[in-house]
Design goal:
368 residues, alpha/beta, five-stranded mixed beta sheet, two-stranded parallel ribbon, 15% strand, globular
Length: 368
């Protein structure tokens, strides 16, 4: 896990990664994974937006979400160079063979192990990946495709789904507005401040992620609970988290199981907190299922009887009631619309498998 005080991508962060890498790899494994230049072959899963139009093992660092930032030294830098140079300074010779988004990794893993048609990330953030007919691309998108891919019938697309959902601005709680004041700058035709990667003043704005992901759901719950409670001073004196993002999904999971998490709630407060959690999760489930159904329609999967979606992310897998609520809403939707029976298949270590499979493909096809 990455603590909040270690969420700046600087030289110390990448040295920390290299140190952890060194602690889990032995000489036998190094020998097995090394290429002809005695460099360890690495496949990298990167769960943030990157600009990747030169080679499949290169990616330009872009702006970040999920509470992360990047130092000026590495802003607009190439991840391949950053990782290889930082590892070399720690006496670990590596060569990056691929850089893939985590949504692509879970898709590759799911397609390899279970013939999944969609990949879904539902953890700290939210995203998805699918194969899309190239003819569905806009002319502008087609012009940006590398020439070697432009003629393919289908293309593997990282949807960057977190930037969708601006139309939900009319259905928000006060806590949503507290978390991101950007909602208040959106006018009726979304022209003033649409979802964006970054601006000099407003930063990143990812609507779908703000409403359904593991970083924000506990904070929404925390704020609603505090605002509901009449005696906030008493609540804080009993150690209830009173700073932003200080209530974690793990703590809420333990509370739901009746376990001690270091702060005391009276029975009435615990009942209220569980009820708030239930409502926030149900709202997130409706939004997430609406997005999944949209993917089904875009991918033209309606004719299938069964549709497997490979999933990565502890939030959907472990947070109390989330998967259950999503499954129930999916069933309701399937009865109202012509959609297949959708199953959510959690792929353990998909970020590792997906990157490894992609690296092997790039090596075999001489794409690096």
């Amino acid at each position: 896990n990455i603590n909040n005080d270690n969420k700046v991508f600087n030289i110390h962060f990448f040295n920390w990664i290299a140190t952890n890498f060194k602690s889990v790899i032995d000489n036998q494994l190094i020998e097995k994974l090394s290429d002809n230049d005695n460099k360890i072959k690495i496949g990298l899963t990167w769960s943030f937006p990157i600009i990747q139009n030169i080679a499949p093992n290169r990616g330009i660092v872009s702006d970040l979400g999920k509470g992360f930032s990047v130092c000026d030294e590495f802003k607009s830098g190439d991840l391949k160079d950053i990782f290889e140079n930082c590892f070399a300074s720690n006496n670990i010779p590596i060569k990056i063979y691929t850089i893939v988004n985590d949504s692509i990794s879970v898709f590759i893993s799911g397609a390899y192990f279970k013939s999944s048609k969609l990949g879904l990330v539902q953890g700290t953030g939210v995203n998805s990946c699918m194969l899309i007919d190239s003819k569905l691309f806009s002319n502008e998108k087609k012009l940006k495709l590398p020439k070697s891919y432009a003629l393919n019938d289908k293309l593997l697309v990282n949807t960057e789904a977190s930037f969708l959902g601006i139309h939900l601005k009319d259905y928000l709680s006060a806590s949503d507005h507290e978390i991101s004041g950007i909602w208040s700058y959106i006018d009726n035709d979304n022209s003033i401040l649409p979802p964006h990667l970054t601006t000099s003043h407003y930063g990143v704005f990812q609507p779908l992620e703000l409403l359904t992901s593991g970083r924000y759901i506990p904070e929404i719950i925390r704020r609603i609970f505090i605002n509901f409670n009449d005696n906030k001073k008493s609540l804080f004196e009993r150690n209830f988290p009173n700073t932003e993002y200080s209530l974690t999904a793990h703590q809420l999971s333990l509370l739901n199981q009746g376990k001690n998490v270091g702060f005391d709630l009276i029975e009435e407060e615990l009942i209220i907190l569980k009820k708030i959690t239930e409502f926030v999760i149900y709202r997130a489930s409706i939004i997430l299922v609406s997005y999944i159904i949209s993917l089904v329609n875009i991918g033209k999967f309606n004719s299938l009887n069964e549709l497997d979606i490979s999933v990565v992310g502890s939030m959907l897998n472990h947070f109390p009631g989330y998967k259950k609520a999503v499954t129930e809403v999916l069933i309701e939707k399937s009865l109202l619309e012509e959609t297949p029976n959708i199953s959510l298949d959690f792929i353990e270590d998909s970020s590792i498998y997906g990157a490894a499979i992609s690296a092997l493909i790039n090596e075999k096809r001489n794409l690096i």
